[in-house]
Design goal:
Radius of gyration: 20 Å
Largest sheet: 6 strands, parallel
Helix content: 40-55%
Distance between the termini: 10 Å
């Protein structure tokens, strides 16, 4: 008799894999502005007076953020920054624009921490035959996020990554989860979704028919675990939890 065992683990990114905690985003944005401004000056590009450069980019990104909040569709920050720069006469190669976007994100990347045994945990999951993927709401460009994951030695574990700005919807829409399951070639009932947000991660995971696991973070502190979901303090608890789920797996209906 066949059973509905776990075949894939899908992860949210921020405060799930990468633990940012409560970040001073204004300070990080200012630091990113200084790095990117210096990058343009070094290449003799029209960088403008720094206060004007900082304000222009900040205002444009905030406008896009407010629009995305209203439409429930994320945007690509790289495209926004490139549009602002191009209007000011900045000319860069595609690789240079990727570096430019990274410099804006780099100060924030330094705020992120990961569990010291995370590589071992992910290797144990992968080596047990599970497929791993990232499904995240974000406006940070894929190139920057992949670079960050690569620096941490985590990129190899995630051949499949879905970022909301590349789609016309974002979590809590279940569509992103359904697409992710399709990309890894696993049925929804055979997937575990791990995230820190009850509204954007746990609710849609349960609604789509996935197993939902809430990871402790500041975003859910003091909140009750939704009915039907599991809760963990650390990602290192996942292998044992998945073994437990497999032991209680239900027979597949013919």
């Amino acid at each position: 008799m066949a059973y509905d065992r776990i075949q894939a683990v899908l992860f949210d990114l921020g405060d799930t894999i990468l633990n940012f905690g409560k970040v001073n985003t204004t300070k990080a944005f200012l630091a990113g502005a200084r790095l990117s401004h210096a990058f343009l000056k070094e290449r003799r590009q029209p960088a403008a007076w720094f206060p004007w450069y900082f304000a222009r980019n900040l205002i444009r990104l905030r406008i896009k953020y407010f629009i995305s909040d209203f439409t429930h569709r994320d945007f690509n920050s790289l495209e926004v920054l490139r549009a602002v720069g191009t209007r000011q006469g900045v000319v860069l190669t595609p690789a240079q624009w990727d570096e430019f976007a990274w410099l804006w994100y780099e100060p924030l990347s330094r705020c992120a921490q990961v569990e010291p045994d995370l590589q071992r945990t992910l290797a144990a999951l992968r080596d047990s035959g599970l497929k791993l993927a990232i499904v995240s709401n974000t406006f940070v460009s894929r190139t920057s996020l992949e670079r960050h994951l690569g620096q941490l030695g985590l990129l190899e574990f995630f051949p499949t990554q879905l970022y909301s700005y590349e789609y016309h919807f974002r979590k809590p829409s279940t569509e992103l989860l359904r697409i992710a399951a399709g990309k890894v070639g696993v049925g929804l009932a055979n997937c575990v979704f791990v995230g820190d947000r009850i509204d954007n991660d746990i609710v849609p995971a349960l609604a789509s028919g996935m197993h939902a696991v809430l990871k402790d973070a500041h975003t859910n502190a003091g909140k009750a675990t939704p009915k039907g979901a599991r809760r963990i303090r650390r990602l290192s608890e996942l292998p044992a939890l998945i073994e437990e789920l497999d032991r209680t797996a239900q027979p597949v209906r013919a």
